[in-house]
Each structure stands twice: as structure tokens, then as C-alpha cells.
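Note to self: keep these together.
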Amino acid sequence: MTLRSDPKAESLVKACYFDDPLIDAAQRFWRSQEWIEVSRILPSGKGSALDLGAGRGISSFALAKDGWSVTSLEPDPSPLVGAGAIRSLACVSNLGIKVVSDYSETLPFPANTFDLVYCRQALHHACNLRQTCKEIARVLKPKGILIATREHVISKPEDLHVFLAQHPLHNLYGGENAFLLSEYKDAIRLSGLKLMRSLAPLDTAINYFPSLEKDINNMCVRHFSKLVGSHFATTLMKSPILGSACRRTFIIFVNSFSNAPGRLYSFIAVKPSPA
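Structure:
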């Protein structure tokens, strides 16, 4: 992979968990703030999970490590970033991860198979987003949960080429994409799933990782420094009550007015029980 051989791209490679040994990258993801936040919204009962668009298998590893019975869906057979890598990771880690090579629009599973469908940076790769969501809804059990994280969002169709032009990986393999926020929400709802939460870019570390809480706080200080001066802004942020209020105000402001092409959202939906 060209990116991995470029010393200047080392930090990007690690941020994307493309570094080797793969087992070390997977362990780092499992310990990351992103996965800690995901763990807080996972169903409490461990069951069967489909990791859709599993890539190298870091999410499959984390789910299996936490006690889920995991099936990884990954159409790319690559031993570096695809199904081959997942099989190697499952072998090295001694975790029982089943690997299936197929596409999200035609999931090769019976209806009502999984308690959880987890998609990390996967829905925006769908050739047919609505069909993918219909298939997810079909294979979920009643009361099953869809968690789709870190999905690229654009504000208008013409923003797509702007996003693709600035994406650091798209020029290497041409596989990136993004949808309107309304397209994600409509696809989920039309599938029959009930959309429970839509998490904006700064709502959760799931979206802004590898940035850390301190980075968000520093951004908040810089923002309020422009309004009230740096000394007062720093004093505000040190106050447990006022600092929390300022941080939340800043997050609401950024989430409401940011139109950055490709900004990240996450979605949580549930399959209703039959009437």
C-alpha cells in the first residue's frame, strides 16, 4: 500500500489503523476513546453481531473481545485491508470471527439473524444506501440495534467533489463517498427501522476521534477568547459548571453551523417488535 510506505503519512496510517502488526492496531482500537464511547451505547446483552463493511477487522476484533458472536462482512479479499486481513487477525487473536465476502445490498443471511449490526465508516460506501438499510433491517432481530458510526455527510450534492478532492485517501483508491444527512435518515426510516439518535460531529468522541477531549476544550477556549478575551475564557473553562455550559454552547454552535464537506455523523436505530 502506497500510503503505508510513505514516512510522511505515518500518523495518518496509525489514525486509520492501517499499521502493522494488525493485532497491535486492533488492540489499540479496542482501547481507544472511540470504542469506549461505542461500548456505552452497545446493547447490554451480548449476542450475535454483524460487522458490516469490516475492512481490516478492527471492529470485529473489538466486538469479539467484548463477548459478541461476530460475523464480518467484507467484499474486498485483500490480505492487507480486507477479508484476508480479518481471517489472519481472527487466527492470531484466537477469536471466533466468521468472515463472509459479500455486499451490503444482498446480505446472505436469513431474516432475523442478528442482535446487532455495527457499521464503522461503512454506509457511505454503499452503492445503494436505501437497499443496504433495507437489508440491515431484514437481518436484524426484532428489538435489534443498528449502530452506524463516522459516516461522511455533505450539505448539498455539489459538495461531494470538494470532499473527495480533499480526502487524503480517495486519490489512492477512489473508494470514498458521502451522502446528505437527510439521505441517511430517510434510508434508515424507510427500511422500517426507528431512528433513535443522530449524533452530530462534536456530540461524541466516536465522531471526532482521534482528536481528544482536551482538543475540543482548547477549541472552545479559542472560540470564547475571541468574545471575552483569553484570560476570562480560560477562567470560565476551569469552572465545573460554567466550563461545562460553555463547552456545550460551543458544541451546539459548531454542530449547527458547520457545513464542512465530509463531516462525521453517527446513527443509532432499532428494529421495532411486530405489533
